[in-house]
Amino acid sequence: MTQALLSELRATLGQAQVLSEGDLSAYERDWRKRYAGKALGVVRPGSTAEVAAVVRLAAAHGVSIVPQGGNTGLVGGGVPDASGAQLLLSLQRLNRVRELDAANLTLTAEAGCILQAVQAAAAAQQLLFPLSLAAEGSCTIGGNLAANAGGTQVLRYGNARELCLGLEVVTPQGKIWDGLGGLRKDNTGYDLRDLYIGSEGTLGIITAATLKLYPAPLAQMTALAACASLEAAVALLGLAQARAGSSLTGFEVMNGFALSLVAKHFPQLTQPLGPQPWTVLLELSDSESEAHARAVFEGLLEAALEQGLIHDAAVAESLEQSHALWHLRESIPLAQSEEGLNIKHDIALPVSRIPAFVASTDAALRARWPGIRLVDFGHLGDGNLHYNVQAPEGMDAAAFLRSQERAVNELVFDAVLAHGGSISAEHGIGQLKREELARRKHPVALELMRAIKKALDPQGLMNPNRLI
């Protein structure tokens, strides 16, 4: 039966777009090299109609589908299991920008569009698509929406969900829902768009999206600031919000160990402030003028110095210097990877609770595992912390992860919930946190989620055993 399905798929898509032999590891293994499976085949449709045809054929044969965009996810949600019975559906050929409506400030792009290409299409019209994250050169719009990606500008513009006005989706039955309208007000029933965003391919396959654009800022100012404590960083955030308002578009925090890993593995990257307990990267985008932006920025930093919230700062004097400061922040995950396997936590907390969470959880982890190294960094402005655990120096990192990950997660997630937080902020659930979600999500919420899944995907063929 599986060979019959592959034959039908080849007749529908063409021989070259159905892969079942040779090295398929680029599709079957996640980029962290943590999850690897075996697909029945990899299909590469080139249009929404072809996606729908693939889904109808798979449903007729009772074969489950794993949708995949850029395969840059961190929770194992976009790779097949080890059964060899799942069809991997790559959306990379659906990569066109269909329309840019400058007057409506919208752009419609297919799911396989690389995020950077969408940013560039907007910039070519002096507009801004503000979703920005380290993987923007390889992640795709469909994947960003399926996981409700966050990134570095959530503070001002919101998550992927807030940046999407409409979707085109192929249902588990192979029907096409065209919901691509670029309306900002549409009060005609359930919001199906929000149902699919963040669903990680478990309810249907996003094939295109209509996205919000913004006028490009006339000026941007970027700086690093040194803080003696996380409490000072939180106070600096409050001061920045009071002084800059919505012009504050980025507010990232990095602990000293995180940047020490960058210095160790990427010594060519200049760190203008040197080693600090905590370093904040803040950015202001101004729609008035560069002079106005500089005046607000310099006034903010002067006030922070006077109030003792920071003790040093380095302001970028050019776009090149601004990129260099951001490159430091974006190199932390790469430096961690060079240092060895690590236990990642993508958590959300009320901003006011972050210092207490970090202090108590750091202490608890170090007491239980002496020598453990903590890589704390993330989007402090929206309460999203990447709270990662590196094995003690000299210890086999892979062995530490295999033997201690469950216990580390238990301690960290207990602390997250005790402080009113969430175990997933922007990376999703996938297979990495599926069991944790089942244990920790409110039972009524889980009941509702499972009812939606059963109603929309009664055969259970859309990315099974992911999320719920």
TrEMBL record:
Taxonomic lineage of the native organism: Bacteria, Pseudomonadati, Pseudomonadota, Betaproteobacteria, Burkholderiales
UniProt name for this protein: FAD-binding oxidoreductase
Keyword Isomerase: no
Family matches, as Pfam families: FAD-oxidase_C, FAD_binding_4
Gene Ontology biological process terms in this record: respiratory electron transport chain
Stated family: Belongs to the FAD-binding oxidoreductase/transferase type 4 family.
Cofactor: FAD
Source domain of life: Bacteria
Keywords: FAD, Flavoprotein
Organism: Paucibacter sediminis
InterPro entries: FAD-bd_oxidored_4_C, FAD-bd_PCMH, FAD-bd_PCMH-like_sf, FAD-bd_PCMH_sub1, FAD-bd_PCMH_sub2, FAD-linked_Oxase-like_C, FAD-oxidored/transferase_4, Oxid_FAD_bind_N
Residue stretches making up the FAD-binding PCMH-type domain: 35-216
Keyword Manganese among UniProt keywords: no
MF terms in GO: catalytic activity; FAD binding
